[in-house]
Design a protein that fits this description.
By secondary structure, this protein is α/β, with parallel strands linked by helices. Helix content is 43%, strand content 15%. It is built from seven helices and five strands; from the N terminus they run H-E-E-E-H-H-E-H-H-H-E-H. The chain has a five-stranded mixed sheet with strand order 1-2-3-4-5. Helix 1 runs parallel beside helix 7 and helix 2 packs across helix 5. The radius of gyration is 18 Å and the shape is globular. The N terminus is likely disordered.
């Protein structure tokens, strides 16, 4: 890939991040919303501990419902965004997701130390315009539902990435972690943002 193409794909990825985040920010002005704050490029300052291994570096957007203080919030969604310009049909492989799962699981474990109701208010999202590895996601769903897992290879990857020994050890984490792939391309995000903005702006008579 040429330098010019590398720059283009990087800019496309930035645009995807900005546009997706902007669309979430519109929720702040919706009537009767319980969303009170959105943090970009990391969680709210009251959460960070300065530890780059805590999963903070993975969080592109954090949405807070009820209160920006994580201890008082009624809901928090942590999202990592990944956009591809040239590999939009390439399926994510488990090895490509290792860093994400490791980091989010570390964040989850840290929250568990200070909160007993993690499952009721915390969500982790991996958002991309590339498709997800179906078998790997199926194993996550089976763990989440407490179902038998027959795909030992992908189960081993989940246990390896989280550092745990049994599916039951990661059941709650799998319940609050979601893959949202096949997200719209950045140009489609731009169109959607413009359409959503129109509902908040007065009509102009020409």
């Amino acid at each position: 890939m040429t330098v010019q193409n590398l720059v283009r794909t990087s800019r496309d990825g930035d645009q995807f991040h900005y546009l997706w985040a902007a669309r979430q920010c519109l929720k702040l002005i919706q009537p009767n919303t319980d969303l009170v704050a959105i943090s970009i490029e990391g969680s709210a300052i009251n959460e960070t501990d300065g530890n780059t291994t805590s999963g903070e570096e993975l969080i592109d957007v954090a949405e807070y419902c009820g209160d920006i203080n994580s201890a008082k919030a009624t809901g928090i969604i942590y999202s990592q965004l990944k956009h591809s310009t040239v590999q939009i049909h390439k399926v994510w492989t488990p090895s490509e997701l290792k860093h994400t799962i490791e980091g989010f699981y570390h964040k989850y474990k840290n929250i568990k130390k200070t909160s007993d109701n993690v499952a009721s208010k915390i969500r982790f999202q991996f958002i991309s315009n590339r498709p997800m590895h179906a078998a790997f996601e199926l194993v996550k769903n089976q763990i989440s539902n407490g179902e038998p897992v027959t795909d030992q290879a992908n189960l081993n990857k989940w246990l390896e990435f989280t550092g745990e020994k049994t599916p039951s050890d990661i059941q709650e984490f799998c319940q609050i972690f979601e893959f949202k792939c096949n997200e719209s391309y950045f140009t489609e995000q731009k169109i959607a943002l413009h359409q959503e903005l129109r509902s908040y702006l007065p009509d102009i008579d020409c």
